[in-house]
Specification:
235 residues; mainly alpha; 10 helices; 67% helix; globular
């Protein structure tokens, strides 16, 4: 926890003079999405409050917001923990992803599309693979799909999917072989990017549909092996 708190202190400047529970929750959500706080981690009010320089009341409100988003869970007399997902949670996350991401691709207008963010995420994945950093590749993969959703140009859709992708990161964290989980999707991300660069929305959507179906199957297999249906297998 000491390492996480030291890094979290770097985010203190993001709060500026107008620190609020919403901004604290934004920071913690991003940290959870990047795998900074693994599932099952107990979040220290004192440690996080001191790292960010915020009051206990502000932090508790941020915790409440993230609990509402299903990223945290409050356990009576034990504290606040990063949530451990169930298989049902994972299936629902992918159902939501399919509905939203495919709709974004389907609704794109005439090409060319602003694909710089997608291209950067693919390059980020290439760098992670070259460095054998599979956790970073998982992060790059999430960044790719965040950039895909951003093509809709909708703040509401971005906000909705920020929580979904943060939950997805919780699912990624249980993988016993992150390379096997993430590496195949680097090439698939590139294929989706190339289809969109060619202006072929239909092909991009077909690739995305297969991608999400295969990814769901793979991660559910991991969950059933390591966690169990109800998430009780993670300590």
């Amino acid at each position: 926890m000491a390492e996480q708190l030291a890094g979290l202190a770097d985010d203190r400047a993001l709060l500026g003079r107008t620190s609020t529970a919403e901004r604290v929750s934004d920071i913690l959500r991003s940290r959870i999405a990047d795998g900074y706080f693994p599932p099952g981690t107990r979040l220290s009010e004192d440690g996080i409050g001191q790292a960010l320089g915020v009051s206990r009341n502000t932090l508790r409100e941020a915790f409440r917001l993230l609990t509402h988003e299903r990223l945290l869970v409050h356990e009576l007399n034990r504290g606040v923990f990063v949530r451990v997902l169930t298989v049902e949670d994972v299936e629902d996350i992918y159902r939501t992803r399919s509905l939203v991401e495919r709709a974004v691709v389907r609704s794109l207008g005439e090409p060319p599309y602003p694909l710089q963010g997608l291209a950067s995420a693919v390059a980020e994945g290439d760098t992670a693979a070259a460095e054998n950093d599979w956790k970073a590749m998982g992060t790059a993969n999430i960044h790719f799909h965040q950039e895909l959703v951003a093509l809709a140009g909708s703040e509401r859709t971005d906000e909705l999917m920020r929580s979904v992708f943060a939950e997805l990161r919780l699912a990624f964290h249980v993988a016993d072989d992150p390379r096997r989980l993430h590496e195949p999707y680097l090439a698939r991300n590139r294929q989706i990017l190339q289809a969109l660069q060619a202006g072929d929305r239909a092909a991009a959507e077909r690739l995305l549909e297969t991608y999400l179906s295969d990814s769901l199957q793979r991660i559910v297999e991991v969950y059933r092996r390591r966690v169990g249906e109800d998430g009780t297998g993670v300590s």
